[in-house]
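Input record, target 12 of the design panel.
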């Protein structure tokens, strides 16, 4: 719904039981992240309240926002972040594999023919990993391996 109203790129989307991770790239001279998030949060609250018969506020807090381009190594940060988000349902014992998650955005980065439930835009940092989708995907899998090693360290 938000894509129909505003112009932005949704790089990743992963809902979990009590929150959602979104990576949104705003476009120059278009809507701000605040406006986009206000719309998304309002629509989710409306749908929840309609379904449950509740009224009032749904969200407790303002959203968290990090500007990826302000990190020391934006490309590396984003590519690691995508796996962190993809593995969130695994860490919460909702899923056994990011490829089987509810929205499954990570599959957009692993299978060029994957049809996602929401419109995902492959980030330019992913596209810069190689000359073809297959080359990009293979290099992207190195980030998964690195994430799995870090994840195993904590279990």
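The sequence produced for target 12 reads:
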């Amino acid at each position: 719904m938000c894509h129909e109203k505003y112009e932005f790129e949704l790089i990743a989307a992963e809902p979990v039981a009590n929150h959602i991770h979104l990576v949104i790239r705003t476009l120059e001279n278009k809507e701000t992240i605040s406006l986009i998030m206000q719309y998304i949060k309002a629509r989710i609250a409306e749908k929840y309240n309609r379904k449950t018969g509740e009224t009032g506020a749904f969200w407790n807090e303002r959203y968290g926002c990090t500007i990826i381009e302000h990190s020391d190594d934006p490309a590396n940060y984003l590519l690691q972040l995508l796996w962190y988000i993809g593995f969130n349902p695994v860490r919460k014992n909702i899923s056994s594999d990011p490829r089987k998650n509810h929205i499954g955005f990570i599959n957009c980065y692993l299978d060029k023919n994957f049809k996602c439930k929401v419109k995902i835009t492959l980030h330019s940092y992913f596209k810069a990993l190689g000359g073809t989708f297959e080359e990009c995907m293979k290099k992207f899998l190195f980030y998964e391996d690195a994430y799995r090693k870090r994840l195993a360290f904590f279990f």
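Residues 9 and 118 are 11 Å apart (CA to CA).
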